[in-house]
Amino acid sequence: MRAQFVLSEIGVGLRRNLTMTFAVIVSVALSLALAGGSLLAREQVSTMKGYWYDKVQVSIYLCNKNDASSDPNCAKGAVTQQQKNEIKTDLEKLDVVEKIYYESADEAYKHYKEQFKDSPLADSLTPDQMQESYRVKLKDPTKYQVLQTAFSGRQGVQEVQDQRSLLENLFNLLNGMNIAALCVMALMLVVALLLIVNTVRVSAFSRRRETGIMRLVGASSFYIQMPFILEAAIAGLIGAGFACVLLVLGKWFLINNWLQQKIVLINFIGWDAVIKVLPLIVAVGVLMPAVAAFFTLRKYLKV
């Protein structure tokens, strides 16, 4: 009998405040969709970092005869065979080094022609203008400073370049977009909370006679508050459901059927990342309105 009464009160409350309930559902859905999208974006950035950082190398460019007059690091002339051997020997001694690849000037010229075959500058270069280099794969890509310190300014070395730094601007942009999404999400959560509080207030005011009678017959505070809390939780649950649908549709249409077709070089997140986020979205969608309603009702429905 009590459960039936609570359910009937929930139905009455939802019908009386249909417009505000709809606004709560929409705001909760948008804020939680943004929250889930931000979590997935952070996961995507982490996945990309792990994927690309594992592939990047440190390049030690060696001086050639053309650098002697133009680069102060190569003022003593082109690298000698002895200097190349010493550099390779010292690289092999470092614990942070996993693999060492040597690229000759001819190989560098061939790779350049393959990568920039449509560039008008490609035909103006000759193999002797290209630099020899050691491409070093590190066990931990963040240990770049070890090579930077050991080989920068060394005779025969023109430059030590960390390819990881070339990706930092991209990751900084993605992190900035993620922060912007989090700020919008926070704003939407505040709007959702305000709507929930106002909806509960209006609902409590419209049913003040019923709650007054329940006080007189000795109903407990929790029993009086239960219909209002459940109304807010149900609205939040529906909003969370819509947020989950938006995340699934975003993964299916935006990533699987568009971005993966257009950008094949990026390792995008899988369905496992989305599935891990969905329960959190549902939990927040239910608990946030319920807790907000509980604290709002402590003021308006004191027994």
SSE diagram, text form:
Elements: H1 2-16, H2 18-53, E1 58-62, H3 81-93, E2 97-103, H4 105-115, E3 133-138, H5 144-151, E4 157-162, H6 164-206, H7 208-216, H8 221-262, H9 271-300
Antiparallel strand pairs: 1-3, 1-4, 2-3
Helix pairs in contact: 1-8, 2-6, 2-8, 2-9, 6-9, 8-9
InterPro entries: ABC3_permease_C (IPR003838), FtsX (IPR004513), FtsX_actino (IPR047929), FtsX_ECD (IPR040690)
Membrane topology: Multi-pass membrane protein
Function: Part of the ABC transporter FtsEX involved in cellular division.
Taken as a percent bin, the fraction of beta residues is 5-15%
The helix/strand class is alpha+beta
In angstroms, what separates the terminal alpha carbons?
22 Å
- The backbone outline, from C-alpha atoms, is elongated
**What is the ordering of alpha helices and beta strands?**
HHEHEHEHEHHHH
Largest sheet: 4 strands, antiparallel
Put simply, the count of helices is 9
DSSP summary, beta strand count: 4
For the biggest β-sheet, the strand order reads 2-3-1-4
**Helix-residue proportion:** 55-70%
Average pLDDT, rounded to a whole number, is 78
- The Rg value, from CA coordinates, equals 31 Å
Sequence stretches where pLDDT stays below 50 over 5 or more residues: none
